[in-house]
Amino acid sequence: MARLLIHVEGQTEGEFVNEVLRDFLLAKGYDAVSARIMGNARLRRQRGGIRPWPSAKEDIINHLKEDPTCIATTMVDFYGLPQQGDRAWPGRAEAANLKGLKRAPCVESAMLDDLAAEMGSRFNPRRFVPFVIMHEFEGLLFSDCAGFSRGIGRPQLESAFRGIRDQFATPEEIDDSPITAPSKRIKDLVPEYEKPFYGSLVALEIGLTCIRRECPHFHEWLTQLESRLRLS
Question: Can you state the percent helix, strand and coil of the chain, rounding each to 5?
Answer without folding.
Answer: 60, 10, 30
